[in-house]
Amino acid sequence: MISLVLGVETSCDETAAAIIKEGKHVLSNIVASQIDLHKEYGGVVPELASRNHIEKIIPVIDEALNTANVELSDVEGIAVTNGPGLIGSLLVGLSTAKAISFGLGIPFIGVDHLEAHISAVHLERDVSFPFLGLIVSGGHTSLYLVNGYTDFKLLGRTRDDAAGEAFDKAAKLLGLSYPGGVEIDRVAKKGNRQSIKFPRPFKSPQSFDFSFSGIKTSLVYYLRKYPNPQADQIADICASYQEAIVETLVDKSLNAAKLNNLKTTVISGGVACNSRLRELATEKFNQEGISLYIPSLEYCTDNAAMIGALGYFKLKRDEKSELNLNPYSTTRPRYIRGKGLVLENKPV
Ligand code: KG4
Ligand code: ZN
């Protein structure tokens, strides 16, 4: 029976490796961030990201092994993100994982980055199934019904921008630095969240989908009407804009939990670091008597511990990937009668 898993994550701008024991115990969790590399461009430059992963991947894996105090030969399985993400970036982690798997003669498994974000919860607590999972990251905003460690059913997702994208684009419009979500969270603390009324899209309780492009567009119009805002006005804009996104996320997920009769909800992904989201979600879920778990900040943002966790549970079920496994850039949902939305992880 497998115990020690090496997790590898290179889907975007973090090179990460972790050693996980039995899917729950983090022996090491190393993340090399490329934020400084991409800062001057105001967003991730895919070509630079891939090249940087190539430089970092082996040192990061070495550090994960050293910190965990284990030898490479002690590792019994490898879990690696194979999508969604930037193809050039994904290929670095995937090829490295395949090479180690082949060299050591141990199994490897490709895992979905979004499902892994949800699995981050297992690193810190025991959660009983089924539960609702909300993933809020830079590229995705999706609701899942989670029936088991490896059983995820998509309930809804954003039809346009992701919540993190809405934060990042707004920060750019306001002249704030990268990554935008972190900056808006910081600046919003000084502002009044009731000062400007930004739209709350897709209020229909029947839909589990999201849409954030309208909020962003209304900010564009607002700035055309009131150009060159001063620092205190920027704080008010950030606070009000953040409130519109956060309220939408909380209300939609609360509604989804209630309609699906779920007593537990997990929120994860980079945007789950947002202080107002953590505060409002805790308040509203408490009021409804639904348990809410949001992982610690280090497990909400991109990391390889969550990849190792999900990979462990898949390997334990004897799921394995073949050496010809391809990465995929986006997850495409397809409606199948009787099954609802089903994700197709298509290779590119
Ligand atoms: O999960 P993640 O680290 O990478 C992806 O898989 O996309 O999420 C990154 C996203 C970025 O859009 C970033 O601006 C956002 O998470 N983010 C935040 C905060 N911290 C990170 N958004 C709002 N408030 C924060 N405190
Ligand atoms: Zn992520």
What's the quick description here?
This protein has 348 residues and is of the alpha/beta class. The protein has helices at 35-39, 46-68, 87-104, 113-119, 163-173, 180-188, 213-225, 231-259, 275-287, 297-300, 305-316; strands spanning 4-9, 14-21, 25-33, 77-83, 108-112, 131-136, 141-148, 151-157, 264-268, 291-293, 332-336, 340-344. It folds into 2 domains: 4-118 and 300-347, 2-Layer Sandwich (Nucleotidyltransferase, domain 5); 129-294, ATPase, nucleotide binding domain (Nucleotidyltransferase, domain 5, 2-Layer Sandwich).
What features would you describe in this structure?
This protein is of the alpha/beta class. It has 2 domains: 4-118 and 300-347, ATPase, nucleotide binding domain (Nucleotidyltransferase, domain 5); 129-294, ATPase, nucleotide binding domain (Nucleotidyltransferase, domain 5). The chain has 11 helices and 12 strands. A 5-stranded mixed beta sheet has the order 3-2-1-4-5, with helices on both faces. The protein has a 5-stranded mixed beta sheet with strand order 8-7-6-9-10, with helices on both faces. Strand 9, helix 9 (275-287) and strand 10 (291-293) form a beta-alpha-beta unit. Helix 5 (163-173) packs across helix 6. The radius of gyration is 20 Å and the shape is globular. The model has no long low-confidence stretch (mean pLDDT 94).
